[in-house]
Amino acid sequence: MHHPPRLDAFDRKILAILQQDNTTPQRTIGEAVNLSAPAVQRRIKRMTEDGVIRANVAIVDPAAVGQSITLFVEVEVISETAEHIEAAKRAFAATPEIQQCYYVTGEADFILVVTVPVMADYEALTRRLFFGNNNVKRFRTFVAMDRVKVGLGVVVDG
Amino acid sequence: MHHPPRLDAFDRKILAILQQDNTTPQRTIGEAVNLSAPAVQRRIKRMTEDGVIRANVAIVDPAAVGQSITLFVEVEVISETAEHIEAAKRAFAATPEIQQCYYVTGEADFILVVTVPVMADYEALTRRLFFGNNNVKRFRTFVAMDRVKVGLGVVVDG
DNA sequence: CTTCGTTTGCAAGTTTGTTTCGTCTGGAGC
DNA sequence: GCTCCAGACGAAACAAACTTGCAAACGAAG
C-alpha cells in the first residue's frame, strides 16, 4: 500500500477482466486492452502492492463441500463501547463459518453471512456466539432459499 | 459438472489453499499436501470441471475504485407468485451495483448487498429499483461502517 | 532546449503449468 | 490364486506464462 491508488482506463479494464477470471493470460489481457504483456504485468504488480487487488482466490461452491445452508443474521448488541465492539468484531472474524461480517448503522449493529452444512450447526453457533455472549441483545435470522447472485465484484468503470 | 463431487482429504486441502491464494504454484501445493505437481493439477482440473471450483477471481478493494459505500437492503415484496419472484431475481441480478442477492425466508424476501461511490447513487438506485417497482412493499437499508470480514471462503474440512 | 521521471515494447532468462509415459495399486472375473 | 483392467501416481520432457533488463518514446519541469 504505497501510493495513493490512482487508476487510469487501462488499470480499470484490467481489473474488470481479473475480477471475472484471474487466470486470464497477461498476453490475452494485453490484446484486450491494447498493451504489451509486460506492461499488463507491471500494472497488476503495482495494483497488488497498492492494495487495489486484495487477493486472488478460487471461489468454491458451498454445496459441493457440504456447506449447503446460507444464513443472514442481524445482531443487535447492548453496549456499543469501543471495547465491546472490537471484541465482537474479533469474535466474528475468527469464526470460520462466518463468511462475511459488517458493522452497520440502523436497527442492527452487525450483519453476518453464515454458511453451515446443517441447521444443527447453526443452532450450535447461535448458542456459542449469541446466547453465550451477554452483550448480545437480540438477533434475527434469515435463511437463504436461493443464492440469486453471489460475488465480490465491484463496478470499475469510473 | 459431470461427476457427483466426491472430495477426499487431498482435494479439501487443495481447496483450502486455493481459497486463500489461487496463485500458489502447484509444486508448492504439492509439497503442502504430499502430492506431485501433476497430481495437484489433475485434481484442480477435475474439481473445476465438476463445478466445485466455480471461478478464479481477483478481489478488488471497493474503496480503491471509488465504490466506498457498502449497503444492505432488506426488500419485502407484495406478490410472491413465481413470475413476480423470477422477475425480481432477474432485475437484481442484472444490476451491477448489486454485489450479492439472496432470496430468503423470514420478515424479508430479498437481501441485497450493494456498493456505490456516493449516497446519491444509492438514492438513484432505490428510485429505479424500489419506488419504480410497484411490487415492492417496503425496504430497509443498513449502511456498513466497517467491512469487518469479507470473503466467500467456506469451511472445507469435512 | 535540456533534463528527469515515467512508461512502454522487445528480447532474453526464469518460473510455472501441462503432457507423456512407465509404474503401481485395487478390484472383477475366471 | 491368477490375470486383466481401470484409475492414480511420480519423474521427466515439454510448452506456456511470467519476470527482468534495457533502450526508446513521451511529458513535465527547469
From TrEMBL, chains A, B:
Record InterPro entries: ArsR-like_HTH (IPR011991), AsnC-type_HTH_dom (IPR000485), Dimeric_a/b-barrel (IPR011008), Tscrpt_reg_AsnC-like (IPR019888), Tscrpt_reg_AsnC/Lrp_C (IPR019887), WH-like_DNA-bd_sf (IPR036388), WH_DNA-bd_sf (IPR036390)
GO cellular component: cytosol
Family matches, as Pfam families: AsnC_trans_reg, HTH_AsnC-type
Record keywords, A-Z: DNA-binding, Transcription, Transcription regulation
GO BP terms in the entry: regulation of DNA-templated transcription; response to amino acid
Residue ranges of every copy of the HTH asnC-type domain listed in the record: 7-68
Gene Ontology MF terms in the entry: sequence-specific DNA binding
Transmembrane intervals: none
Annotated PANTHER family: LEUCINE-RESPONSIVE REGULATORY PROTEIN, TRANSCRIPTIONAL REGULATOR AZLB
Protein name stated in the entry: AsnC family transcriptional regulator
Organism: Shinella kummerowiae
